[in-house]
Each structure stands twice: as C-alpha cells, then as structure tokens.
Automatic annotation (TrEMBL):
Gene3D superfamilies: Hotdog Thioesterase
Record key words, sorted: Hydrolase
Lineage per the UniProt record: Bacteria, Bacillati, Bacillota, Bacilli, Bacillales
Cell cycle among keywords: no
Organism: Halalkalibacter nanhaiisediminis
Protein name listed in UniProt: Acyl-CoA thioester hydrolase
Matches recorded under InterPro entries: 4-hydroxybenzoyl-CoA_TE, HotDog_dom_sf
Length: 136
C-alpha cells in the first residue's frame, strides 16, 4: 500500500464549503506516484509508461478544508499489459471516497501497449489489496 497525505487548499473548496468533487480524482492521482515510480523511477515523461484508460470514483462523505486527507493506494489486479488500482480517501478517520482505475503499460514511441515485465509485476504485487475478511 502507498499512503499520501494531502493538505486541502482554500481554492479546492466550492460554494457550499466542502472540497469540490472535481478535486477528488486529482488527489487520487497524487496517491499513485509510488506506482508511477515503479514503472519510471525518475518520473521522466520521456519514457512514461502508465496510461489511464478507466476511472471510477464513489463519493461517500464530504471532505473539508483545514483537515489533512489521507489517501491509501493499492494494486487490485495485475494483467499482462494492464493493472488496476484500488484507492481510499480518508479524513478524520472516515472514508470519504473510494476509487478504481485501470492503467495500461503503454509505449508511446510505438503507440502500443506492452507486457508488464516480471520485475515490475513483482514490485506491484508487494502493494496488492487484500479484501477485509468478514467477522463472524
């Protein structure tokens, strides 16, 4: 799991005083930086590999300015050339948003997806999401 803390800015609030819904996907992307480093350690765009093809956000509770927001990011599936991310956003101990996104390992020079190498798959596996087991 990767963990990132965001300090909300005033400009990210909306007219009713909570964090604007358009900000949440941007914050989730901030939480994926550790994943991007697995594919491209120096984060150079010259050989950028991670191309997002799908994203879903579930808004559960409002987020507010003035309190830090914790983003937890996991890998939920690893395929041949793609992988899925599961992420949660928490403020003051409450999960306020959940998300899923799908990325493809993409070679921008050939304009084609490519298989994810075994070493990268192994590193991704270190951050794999395990569903919480039900009590009882």
């Amino acid at each position: 799991m990767f963990e990132t803390v965001i300090e909300p800015r005033v400009c990210e609030t909306d007219g009713v005083g909570h964090i604007n819904n358009t900000t949440i996907p941007i914050w989730f992307e901030s939480g994926r930086q550790g994943i991007f480093r697995i594919f491209n350690p120096d984060l150079s765009f010259k050989d950028w590999r991670c191309v997002i093809i799908k994203m879903n956000v579930e808004y559960i509770a409002q987020l507010y300015y003035g309190q830090p927001v914790k983003i937890r990011t996991w890998i939920s599936r690893i395929g041949n050339s793609s992988f899925e991310v599961y992420e949660e956003m928490e403020q003051e101990g409450q999960i306020c948003a959940k998300g899923n996104s799908t990325y493809v390992n993409f070679n921008r020079h050939t304009q084609r997806s490519e298989s994810i190498s075994a070493p990268i798959k192994n590193k991704l596996q270190e951050h794999f999401y395990e569903e919480p087991k039900e009590k009882g």
